[in-house]
Specification:
The structure is a homodimer.
Chain A: E1 2-9, E2 22-29, E3 36-45, H1 50-57, E4 68-75, E5 85-88, E6 95-99, E7 103-105, H2 125-137, H3 145-154, H4 168-175, E8 180-185, H5 190-197, E9 199-207, E10 221-223, H6 226-231, E11 235-238, H7 248-260, E12 268-272, H8 277-286, E13 292-296
Parallel strand pairs in A: 8-9, 9-11, 12-13
Antiparallel strand pairs in A: 1-2, 3-4, 3-6, 3-13, 4-5, 5-7
């Protein structure tokens, strides 16, 4: 009999998450039946989407939603043999009994020298979201060789902290006086209003996050975007990486290739201990992390 | 020497347009030079876009922007012979001297029994905007034969007045309980927030107008749309018909064909007298018109 530790959402978030929204609970797991496997979490992920999605996908008393990198420790399903690693939407739990429906085996040729935690980061949902946002939604074209060389040399051309910058408008204007063709929106709120004004005609906006409004108790309001969208003929698209699920295997291979070639750089912010998962989640929403927030069990 | 009556925007609109924003002025026109023509307005159009565009395209003292159907009454340009009709962005004026740059001759085979005023309506910018919004932006597919028959039978399935309806939310839910795939946005403001909530996943929103905010003195605000756009993976695109200018000739032919076949129905709200143009414009923004607002000189 295996005992699973789980983090329960005992009370829906109201404003910024508090430790008291969560409760650690131990659950006795049944033996895996035919077709089922028993998983042990190795790495768990905390992501900003959990804050808004908890409200629409969960009831109070449910185990928190989330993805983990787990090891198969018992198996009655030949697709997931003992010792293999899977990515699964098991929620915040150390052990899980499930059939394979929602599991994805990691790439068969995952390199030895690449941490499996990256399956929750740059070679996983966040990497895919960035890739699809850039290629499918924004439709960014290959830059000229000179531009690519320049970008490589500098890393990013310009960067600033949207929370501490004096004037967003000035910062955006200085960074690109002629405006912006593409905008990858992850912040939302008043920032989006300022950024909208800096778009060029026929600009594209990929929206996959809106972290600045996630903890609103009453929704923040801002000027309606329609008039600017007409004047500039802008395209704005909300998306999740799941929209291009049929491309995932090939996309993950490309991401892994770029990582191995040194074209992609990954940084992780690892918190140790399943017990610290709510703290890691709250830190993420405060912006404490630099790099992908991961919990190592 | 020809005298042109013109309507000048003497003061930028502040809130709802007033008669005092306009001044009727008589202008002496020069003789048309080589390559130039002299036009006489037959029909002029007032359109909601004039309200927001006046702010970004005009200075105080300019002749109001706008499109007219005019007759060539003198010509030093073989492309536009005397007696022919053109659509031109000449502004609110009875007579114009210009080279042909901004003029479009009406279709050579314009049917005798179709009013030339429709070149400002269903066989012009508004017709093209509807066509491109539906086909290019919303990507509406051909419906099944049964659906088409049903639509033909009923005209529209459902309709309501967004200004007088008790609850927009209830009206939209009742009209289509399962939600909406496509939304042609012309109203904006609080209406857009309610409509956004009724979209289905992967819905498309074509934005070519936002009349409910045009007369704001301070911008109305509403909840930011981003989170809903992510959850439902919505696409929203601001556009003007000019984006598909290369398709205009073929599109106008299609519109004319549908009109002649009785598939398109046009209704016009004609105001007589150039002197009444500001009044017609203000009536349009109040929603007094049913059908395309046209001024017959």
């Amino acid at each position: 009999m295996v005992q699973a530790k789980t983090w329960i959402l005992v009370k829906h978030f109201d404003g910024f998450p508090k430790q008291s929204n969560f409760e650690l609970k131990v659950e006795e797991l049944p033996e895996p039946k035919d077709g089922e496997v028993l998983l042990e979490a190795v790495f768990l992920s905390v992501d900003p989407y959990m804050r808004p999605f908890s409200r629409i996908r969960m009831k109070e008393g449910n185990v928190m939603i989330g993805t983990q990198l787990a090891k198969v420790i018992q198996s009655n399903n030949p697709a997931f043999p003992v010792g293999s690693h899977v990515v699964g939407r098991c929620g915040w739990r150390t052990h899980t009994v499930c059939d394979g429906t929602d599991l994805v085996a990691i790439m068969p040729d995952w390199p030895q020298d690449v941490s499996l935690s990256l399956a929750l980061g740059i070679i996983g949902m966040p990497g895919l979201t960035a890739l699809y946002g850039i290629e499918e939604v924004l439709g960014v074209q290959k830059g000229s060789d000179a531009k690519v060389a320049f970008l490589k040399e500098l890393g990013f051309d310009e960067a600033f902290n949207y929370k501490t910058v004096g004037s967003l408008e000035e910062a955006l204007k200085q960074a690109s006086p002629e405006g912006y063709d593409c905008f990858f929106e992850n912040v939302g709120g008043p920032f989006s209003t300022v950024a909208l004004q800096q778009m060029k005609n026929f600009g594209r906006i990929a929206v996959c996050g809106s972290i600045s409004v996630y903890n609103d108790t009453t929704p923040q309001t801002g000027p309606y975007p329609h008039l600017t969208m007409i004047f500039k003929q802008l395209k704005m698209e909300g998306f999740m990486h799941s929209k291009w699920e049929h491309k995932h295997p090939e996309s993950l291979k490309r991401l892994m290739g770029w990582l191995k070639e040194g074209k992609l750089h990954s940084r992780e912010h690892i918190t140790k201990g399943f017990e610290n998962m709510p703290a890691a989640f709250m830190g993420l929403l405060r912006g404490d992390n630099i790099g992908k927030a991961i919990i190592a069990v």
